[in-house]
Write a structure and sequence with these properties.
The complex is a heterodimer of chains A (about 250) and B (about 550).
Chain A: E1 2-6, H1 15-28, E2 33-37, H2 43-47, H3 57-63, H4 65-71, E3 73-74, E4 80-83, H5 92-95, H6 101-106, E5 115-119, H7 126-134, E6 137-142, H8 146-161, E7 168-176, H9 181-193, E8 201-203, H10 206-214, H11 218-221, H12 226-249
Parallel strand pairs in A: 1-5, 1-6, 2-4, 2-5, 6-7, 7-8
Antiparallel strand pairs in A: 3-4
Helix pairs in contact in A: 1-12, 3-4
Chain B: E1 2-10, H1 16-27, E2 30-31, E3 37-45, H2 50-53, E4 56-65, E5 68-77, E6 88-90, H3 104-113, E7 119-134, E8 140-151, E9 160-171, H4 175-186, E10 191-193, H5 198-204, H6 227-244, H7 246-251, H8 256-274, H9 281-316, H10 320-323, H11 327-348, H12 351-365, H13 381-401, H14 409-428, H15 435-474, H16 480-511, H17 514-523, H18 528-533, H19 535-547
Antiparallel strand pairs in B: 1-9, 1-10, 2-7, 3-4, 3-7, 4-5, 5-6, 7-8, 8-9
Helix pairs in contact in B: 6-8, 6-12, 8-9, 8-14, 9-11, 13-14, 14-15, 15-16, 15-17
The chains are: A alpha/beta (about 250), B alpha+beta (about 550).
The complex binds adenosine-5'-triphosphate and magnesium ion.
């Protein structure tokens, strides 16, 4: 099982859009997928029309095996389940002072899923500390601006100092406007500094915004659109990296 | 995740669209498609029903969808859906596990199938209307699928009506909605829950029945039966198995048809040789010869099959630089496989083969002679089977004990033969014994058999490989690197053979224990200490020897 967080310190970079589309596409490709909407704003839950409510709140989820299964909802799509957000996640920080609670909470799901995606809220908190320890890879959407380099560096430095190096980092460019010179320049220069950058980027496109109106993953209503295809390529690239990582780690 | 599904049978008298409306009202569901959708469902299984026996159904649904034909592969098992693989979208019907992308579906299918291929065992033509119970946010909370199914027998264009059904599917986290819907449906007229599944009916119209073939011996004997009757039953079952595998061997859908066909031959030969005195000499002689001939004509193709099956493993046993150099060898295997296949088909179509089958069957189905001449014929099978198994076991132990690290390969070869004979006897007469005891004994025998098999197979394969490389060079292959790679392969095989040889003593000591002896003794109702001391018994033993009960 792969546990992959979609994370960035910054807000509004396309984390949720990525989480929704990737989870849908991974399910379509034959993986059993769970998307956990960890952001109390509940955007992922909204896109999948799942009521953002967990009986007993986050507390129950994190501390009982049965609790986590009871909270899971089938999405409208084959192979894809949702663990919805809950208002109580705001207080999750207090429940997660131990950094390994989330990892332990996910353990009973190991049999049931091939891929668990975590749609995270921005910022570095106890929750994110827990997320770092629970996942084996992190997908980081980056908008190509001058500031983005700095925040990305901040994030990687932070992970280094905390010795959180077990994760595969997979930054990629999100909301790219190829007409803008600045975007062009940065998409070229940044990967030189960060060789882990994925080759695929997601263009800035109005179809992505329409997800909020359609309340469905992009491929469901705009299968042939550019961003939808970009998400397909992104998934293929990510799965390739995860497999490679597996193969490298196997011997020991 | 779909949790569970309940099936309801519906009165077919009414149209599907009318049913849709009625059910929508009763359950507060929304009709998702105003027209009927056409879905072709193909049930996949192996020739020997590996999925059916494991309680699994493998369905491929193809829909005339918007973006061309797409196949949806579904694994339906009685067990928890938590372990079931995810549904998979494919472009084509898979023929083997190798046609699937890596993932859980591949793992599950591969584990079940082994070398077998997937066959379409039944096909159903389904007209469907989908309904869903939605919430305020238009989220689906329960699915209802109305279907009118028709089975399509192979080669016929008339379909057989399997009736209308409703499938109610629970969705994870929304079980309450499902329970409420199933309550409402229970009150609806013309609707009743059913356990019938369309699979069996759809298979039956093709002329087969689920589970109608297994390579295991499925003969049920009674211990008081005459020996000749029991043996004929077993041999007849083997002839049936042989014949059932001819079509598949010719079509070459997978290697197991030929394999099972040869198993039937070997079992028959082993039985004839261990039960000589149950049949007239002339019969024994004649059909042993014919059975040996069928074994012979199928050997070249089986040898090639084995090499082709093992090719990936063999190739990967080489250092990476050499692997690509084996490609011409694989081509060689393919070409010769084709040629040998053609030769075998000719044999299968020959007068001799047809004669053998009809004459052998005629003999086996003939009424039993009232006063047969063959000495053993009228003895009760239970007693004889006990003795035979016991004797063969004793012989195996004797032969095994005489093997030293310096014994020649031939001795091990002989031992393997005895091992196989014992195995066939145990399997053939299994129905006379307690299932548990037989299984236990066969399992301990397997440990030894595997080792001897490895040793012998590697030895034979290395020899074969030498022959092949000779033929390749005669056929004009000149590239040095190809022969270097083959030689490396031979070397690997010989190393593995050595390892197997070194392991023999240990494996044999696992088998030649007091515990296993006790198990055999119990199985064969023997008390060996008494046998040896009791002079009367000793005499009987001697007498048996003279009439040829033992070799
Ligand atoms: N490729 C894109 N093109 C155009 N708009 C996009 C694209 N990706 C995301 N958006 C829009 O940008 C907004 C923010 O996206 P999203 O919610 O995915 O970001 P986020 O990182 O999850 O934000 P938050 O930090 O608030 O959770 C949304 O309105 C979304 O529709
Ligand atoms: Mg978000």
């Amino acid at each position: 099982m792969n546990t992959v967080a979609i994370y960035h310190i910054k807000g509004g970079v396309g984390k949720t859009a990525t989480a929704v589309n990737l989870s849908y596409l991974a399910a379509l490709s034959g993986q059993r997928v769970l998307l956990w909407d960890l952001d109390p704003q509940a955007a992922s839950s909204f896109y999948f029309r799942v009521k953002p409510k967990v009986k007993g709140g986050g507390q129950k989820l994190l501390h009982s095996d049965a609790g986590i299964f009871k909270a899971i909802r089938a999405s409208d799509y084959d192979n894809l389940d949702i663990l919805p957000a809950d208002f109580s996640y705001r207080k999750m920080d207090h429940q997660l002072e131990n950094k390994k609670i989330l990892k332990r909470a996910l353990e009973p799901l190991r049999e049931a899923y091939d891929l668990i995606l975590l749609d995270c809220a921005p910022n570095i908190t106890y929750v994110s500390e827990n997320i770092f320890r629970a996942c084996n890879a992190m997908i980081i959407p980056v908008i190509p601006t001058t500031l983005s380099l700095r925040t990305l560096e901040q994030l990687t430095n932070y992970l280094q100092t905390k010795e959180l190096t077990h994760m595969q980092l997979m930054p990629f460019f999100s909301m790219v406007d190829s007409r803008r010179k600045l975007h062009q320049d940065i998409t070229k220069s940044l990967p030189e500094k960060f060789p882990d950058f994925l080759n695929t980027y997601i263009p800035n496109a109005s179809e992505v915004e329409r997800m909020g109106i359609m309340r469905a993953p992009l491929p469901v209503f705009a299968n042939a659109s550019k961003p939808s295809r970009a998400y397909c390529y992104l998934l293929v690239e990510i799965m390739g990296r995860l497999r490679k990582d597996r193969a490298l780690k196997k011997p020991d | 995740m779909t949790q569970e599904a309940v099936i309801y049978a519906l009165d077919s008298a009414d149209q599907l669209t009318n049913w849709a409306e009625r059910i929508a009202i009763a359950t507060n569901a929304k009709i998702l498609s105003s027209h009927e959708e056409l879905v072709d469902i193909t049930f996949l299984d192996s020739f020997d029903w590996l999925f059916y026996s494991a309680g699994v159904q493998l369905l491929a649904e193809s829909r005339s969808g918007v973006d061309g034909k797409k196949i949806l592969l579904r694994w339906v098992s009685g067990g928890s859906s938590k372990r079931s693989p995810a549904v998979l979208y494919l472009d084509r019907l898979p023929k083997t596990a190798a046609d699937l992308p890596t993932g859980q579906m591949y793992d599950c299918i591969n584990k079940q199938l082994g070398f077998r291929s997937l066959l379409p065992v039944a096909s159903v033509h389904s007209r469907q209307i989908k309904l869903a119970i939605l919430d305020k946010e238009n989220k689906t909370r329960c699915r209802l699928i109305l279907e009118h199914n028709y089975a399509r027998p192979r080669g016929h264009n008339r379909s057989i009506d399997l009736g209308c059904r409703l499938r109610l599917e629970a969705l994870l986290g929304y079980e309450k909605v499902f329970n409420k819907a199933s309550k409402s449906l229970g009150k609806l007229k013309g609707v009743r829950r059913t356990q019938d599944d369309i699979f069996k009916n759809a298979v039956i119209v093709t002329g087969r029945t689920p589970g109608d073939y297994s390579s295991k011996i499925q003969v049920h004997l009674l211990s008081e039966w005459r020996v000749d009757r029991a043996c004929r039953e077993i041999l007849l079952a083997q002839l049936n198995q042989l014949e059932k595998n001819i079509e598949g061997t010719i079509a070459n859908t997978d290697t197991e048809f030929l394999h099972d066909l040869r198993v039937a031959i070997r079992r028959s030969r082993a039985l004839l040789s261990r039960m000589k005195n149950a049949f007239p000499k002339s019969i024994c002689h004649r059909f042993s010869k014919e059975l040996a001939w069928v074994g012979e004509i199928t050997t070249p193709l089986r040898d090639l099959d084995v090499f082709m099956i093992n090719f990936p493993v063999n190739r990967d046993s080489l250092v990476p630089e050499l692997r690509a150099n084996l490609a011409p060898f694989y081509e060689f295997l393919c070409t010769h496989h084709k040629a040998e296949q053609a030769v075998l088909i000719k044999h299968f179509n020959s007068r001799r083969f047809a004669n053998f089958r009809t004459k052998w069957r005629a003999y086996l189905e003939k009424p039993l002679p009232i006063r047969p001449r063959a000495g053993l014929s009228t003895k009760p099978i239970g007693e004889v089977a006990d003795k035979r198994i016991w004797k063969t076991y004793r012989r195996l132990i004797r032969e095994g004990k005489s093997i030293t690290p310096d014994s020649p390969a031939e001795d091990l070869h002989e031992l393997r033969k005895t091992c196989k004979k014992l195995r066939y006897l145990l399997e053939a007469f299994a129905s006379l014994y307690s299932k548990k005891e037989i299984k236990k004994i066969i399992n301990s025998l397997k440990i030894l058999q595997e080792n001897l098999g490895d040793f012998q197979d590697l030895y034979v394969q290395a020899t074969k490989l030498r022959d092949f490389s000779q033929v390749m060079s005669e056929e004009g292959e000149t590239r040095k690197e190809v022969f270097i790679a083959i030689r490396a392969l031979i070397k690997n095989m010989l190393i593995k053979k050595k390892l197997a040889r070194a392991e023999f003593a240990q494996r044999f000591s696992f088998f030649a224990t007091a515990q296993v002896e006790k198990e055999f003794r119990r199985l064969c109702r023997r008390d060996i200490s008494r046998d040896r001391k009791d002079p009367k018994k000793k005499k009987e033993l001697k007498r048996n020897k003279t009439v040829g009960l033992t070799k």
